[in-house]
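> example.struct
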């Protein structure tokens, strides 16, 4: 893989989590071995990476090569097709790292008919970046990461509900970065009442996610600090048709039944492409029994809490046979000042 393609993939990685339901894409325009344009898709509804790079290159793009982390789009959405822009600027060649199987038409054929060479230069690194995007687009639900902070024996809190702080301050900083890279964070009304969290990033120039609260009964305490904070919107999903928002920052979304799949599809329709789950054992356990989760991140503190296990992060009503348990693969591990961060994906 060329250095230019590596740069394009790095640009895409840098904007992951800020493009909504659109994919993060990076592009590099090269002419006579010199970079003349760089671009990344910065925000849903704004210029795509290819357009950014071509606009920067200007007349120097003519006869050049564009390296793109993902196959250029061929359809009209909130912006025109990128293949049209590539043809307009007179490039001689397009090289991309991942084929977009969700495109409605064949981009290669369109470009080749315009006299532009096309090369599919597969990259495992780029493919890993788009794997969850393709799944989300196909299912029309967000890419989902679940985060839990627990003791060695899997407790999110003591039997008396004490949970501040199981993990250390460095883990909190890592979680702030996680929130920054997701469009929204989802939790339950019970967690809001028990912990009074804010779910903001608290990092310089950090992007605060939309806060989503599942409150089936609608028994919401609007005095909690999350509802008083205006740094980002709060969405409440409820079955209570009488629940009213106290201000414009809080959006009450009433649905007939608070089924997870219906909620996730509605969240996706509203432009949320990446969702972080930070919740208590009840909601955490519900999600872990579904196929919705793309990634599970567990922060382990070197502590043993004990007790009855009522705040164990994963609980089921049924006893599951060992042969039928959900299997995970460990993607990576990291030691954060004696706390262990483990990133897992379902097999």
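> example.seq
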């Amino acid at each position: 893989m060329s250095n230019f393609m590596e740069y394009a993939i790095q640009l895409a990685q840098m904007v992951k989590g800020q493009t909504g339901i659109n994919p993060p894409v990076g592009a590099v325009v090269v002419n006579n071995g010199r970079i003349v344009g760089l671009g990344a898709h910065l925000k849903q509804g704004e210029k795509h990476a290819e357009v950014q790079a071509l606009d920067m290159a200007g007349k120097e793009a003519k006869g050049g090569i564009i390296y793109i982390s993902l196959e250029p789009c061929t359809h009209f959405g909130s912006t025109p097709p990128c293949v049209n822009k590539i043809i307009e600027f007179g490039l001689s060649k397009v090289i991309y790292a991942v084929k977009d199987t969700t495109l409605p038409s064949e981009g290669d054929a369109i470009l080749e008919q315009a006299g532009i060479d096309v090369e599919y230069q597969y990259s495992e690194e780029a493919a890993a970046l788009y794997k969850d995007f393709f799944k989300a687009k196909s299912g029309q639900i967000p890419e989902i990461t679940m985060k839990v902070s627990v003791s060695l024996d899997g407790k999110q809190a003591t039997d008396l509900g004490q949970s501040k702080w199981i993990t250390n301050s460095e883990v909190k900083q890592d979680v702030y970065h996680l929130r920054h890279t997701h469009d929204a964070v989802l939790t339950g009304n019970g967690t809001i009442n028990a912990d009074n969290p804010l779910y903001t990033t608290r990092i310089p120039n950090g992007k605060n996610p939309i806060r989503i609260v599942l409150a089936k009964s609608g028994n919401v305490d609007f005095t909690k600090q999350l509802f008083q904070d205006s740094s980002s919107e709060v969405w409440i999903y409820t079955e209570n048709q009488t629940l009213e928002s106290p201000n414009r920052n809080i959006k009450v979304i009433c649905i007939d039944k608070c089924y997870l799949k219906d909620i996730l599809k509605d969240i996706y329709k509203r432009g949320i492409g990446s969702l972080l789950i930070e919740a208590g054992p009840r909601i955490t356990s519900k999600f872990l029994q579904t196929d919705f989760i793309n990634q599970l991140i567990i922060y382990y503190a070197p502590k043993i809490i004990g007790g009855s296990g009522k705040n164990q992060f994963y609980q089921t009503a049924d006893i599951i046979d060992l042969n039928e348990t959900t299997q995970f693969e460990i993607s990576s591990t990291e030691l954060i000042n004696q706390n262990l961060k483990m990133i897992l994906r379902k097999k």
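> remarks
The chain has two domains: 3-130, 140-346.
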